[in-house]
């Protein structure tokens, strides 16, 4: 497998071996326990000992990079400045790419009980700027005398949303990388995406940045075909956890790619995947990692 692919792909595997031997990643911080993609979620995930903070980034109208899984206000978690719950029918009209950050920060994303995560703590909190998240993590790590975690940042983009919900890939990446470089965390960052265009641009313009190719659970293409489309071997291959097989573990190892599946929320599956040989796991419940053997 590796021999077949290596003849047509360029491997620029960005210091993958400097990562932890088993990488515990808190999904959106710790979505099962705290409001997702918020500073409290990131700091609580650090309390739980994660190696990597997984998060999502979108771009506002005024070019700010902020944390959000969707480029609009998801009805499950969002409350308007007037205190009204955002509805499913109106959520996509609350498009953050058409809103300045000063307006975005007025919405609450922590008070509404999450219908799928009953353990999640309720609190008043807004969508933070990526720069503020990094600053808060640095302060936490300094106070607690621990090393900085890795920041696994997903760009929320796809071709159908270009110019509507987000900028084109080059601008998206450049804005994100401006924050990364300004905060001097290039060595601690992984940029992940389902959108190959994002990773291809990163590979060409920012070759020293670690990359992760995300794969949906319904993607029936072979690993070889997926990598052929991407055009290079990323640092990490990150599929839905149900796609992981012993053969996939073997193939990733042969190509020098880390294999880190998402999103695993029960201990038996976490244990099974670790024993299968994956390099790490992304979970909404990073409190479960302490029970892994």
How is this structure best described in words?
The protein is α/β, with parallel strands linked by helices. The protein has one domain: Alpha-Beta Barrel (TIM Barrel), CATH 3.20.20. It is built from nine helices and eleven strands. The strands form two sheets. Strands 2, 3, 4, 5, 6, 7, 9, 10 and 11 form a nine-stranded mixed sheet that branches. The protein has a two-stranded parallel ribbon with strand order 1-8. α2 packs parallel to α4 and α5 packs across α6. The protein is globular and about 55 Å long. The chain starts with a helix and ends in a 10-residue tail after the last strand. The N terminus is likely disordered.
Give a quick set of tags describing it.
293 residues; alpha/beta; TIM Barrel; 9-stranded mixed sheet; 29% helix; 16% strand
Quick rundown:
The chain is an alpha/beta fold and 293 residues long. It has helices at residues 2-6, 39-47, 101-104, 130-143, 169-182, 196-205, 223-230, 246-255, 267-276; strands spanning 10-11, 23-26, 52-59, 65-67, 150-155, 189-193, 210-215, 232-233, 236-239, 258-259, 280-283.
Write the layout of secondary structure elements.
Layout: H1 2-6, E1 10-11, E2 23-26, H2 39-47, E3 52-59, E4 65-67, H3 101-104, H4 130-143, E5 150-155, H5 169-182, E6 189-193, H6 196-205, E7 210-215, H7 223-230, E8 232-233, E9 236-239, H8 246-255, E10 258-259, H9 267-276, E11 280-283
Parallel strand pairs: 1-8, 2-3, 2-11, 3-5, 5-6, 6-7, 7-9, 9-10
Antiparallel strand pairs: 3-4
